[in-house]
Amino acid sequence: MNRNRIATLGLCIALALYTAGCRSSADRADRIAASVSGGLGSGEKSEASAQPGTTETSLSSNETAHATTVNASTPTFGVIYPMAHPYYEMITAAAKAAAAREGVQLLVKAPDEANLEQQIRMVETMIKQHVDGIAIDPVDRNALVPVIDKAVLAGIPVICFESDAPDSRRLDFIGVDNRDAGQRMGKLLDRLLDGKGMIIVENGMSGMTSLTERQDGLLTYLSRETEIQVLDVRYNEGKEALALSDLEEMIDAHPHFDAFVAMDAVSGPVSVLVWKASGLQRYALTFGMTPDIRQALRNGQVTAAIAQNETKWGDLIVNRLITASKKETIPTFDDVGMTELMAGDVLEK
Fold first, then answer.
1. What pLDDT does 277 receive?
2. How far apart are CA 162 and CA 180, in angstroms?
3. How confident is the model at residue 190, as a pLDDT?
4. What pLDDT is stored for residue 71 in this prediction?
5. Vertex 220: Cα angle to 249 and 161 (nearest 5)
6. CB 97 within 8 A of CB 319
7. Residue 334: helix, strand or coil by DSSP?
8. Which one-letter DSSP state was computed for residue 115?
9. Which of 31, 56, 150, 261 is deepest in the core (most CB within 10 A)?
10. CATH H-level, domain 35-176+310-336: superfamily
11. What's the pLDDT at 44?
């Protein structure tokens, strides 16, 4: 791909991202007008339920304010994502529905971009608020252990989802065996490329358990079972702009690649935009299911996706936290399973 084409591609993608950002900002402004009180650090996003099962959005530049006890008459559970992203919106929707059925409140938080320090502050704030349970998708399996343990020792049950912190006192992990997920992607590539070829890989946060294990499973399978060459592996650290520049640079440096693998929820949608703008006729594979990826599968812009049955997560999160808050035993691992979807598959909306 020549430099002029790359420049044109960058402009197309930037315009698409800018337009999406404008819509997001407008939506956010509307929601702020009806916000509930609550303190957040700069760049953080929160949804706190005023009634059981409902959510309203609050943004504030004051992190430490309002670290008071939440509504003591209604069980309140905190959900902390690694970042604000459409991938997690469907999980929130399912969790809200479960919370409404069970008559509990949800406090949902996420940094605008993946940020370890903000996740730590979010857990600390929830401890001060004396929530009844916390579910967290940790950006760093080791760095979050002390604050997870602090919550548990304070009598607040903690579970992890998508990405685990196995060395912590967390009670349960909701997700999949991520090394197995990586191997499944390797087998899929093996079939598509007949055991030979060249691929480029984009991953997300380098310290996130799910992503490092997923990549390890993929690379181990390819090395052991195929002659497929891995030309380049990049990390976007949860940033869309970096994922875009990484992909442009890899395509420029390795124009004869046969397939692209997106290991995280950020890289997949970015690849869709690149494929649309450039008209590339290469395999594109990703993990996770969002409305954009679902549509891209229908349109043939994504070759295949390995979904982790994410629609199950929200219900499981709420129900496991309810059970744990009652001091009842819950599983240590809830395997939600995986579904392999190919371009052109008939998919439910």
1. 85
2. 14
3. 98
4. 64
5. 85
6. no
7. strand
8. -
9. 261
10. Response regulator (3.40.50.2300)
11. 55
Model-level pTM greater than 0.90? no
- Low pLDDT (below 50) residues in the chain: 1-9, 11-42, 48-69, 346, 349
In CATH terms, 177-307 corresponds, of 3.40.50.2300, 3.40.109.10, 1.10.10.10, 3.65.10.10, to: 3.40.50.2300
Per DSSP, 36 falls in state P
Task: Give long-range contacts, CB 8 A cutoff, 24+ apart: 33-42.
Answer: 35/59, 37/66, 38/66, 38/107, 39/63, 39/64, 39/65, 39/66, 39/67, 39/125, 40/109, 41/118, 41/121
What pLDDT score was predicted for residue 281?
87
Which residues on neighbouring strands pair with residue 259, listed in sequence order? 199, 283
| DSSP secondary structure string for all residues of 123-149 | HHHHHHTT-SEEEE--S-TTTTHHHHH
Q: Fold match between 35-176+310-336 and 177-307?
A: yes
pLDDT the model gives residue 280: 85
Q: Half-sphere exposure of 347 toward its Cβ, with a 13 Å CA cutoff?
A: 23
Torsion on CA atoms 114, 132, 159, 340, rounded to nearest 10: -80
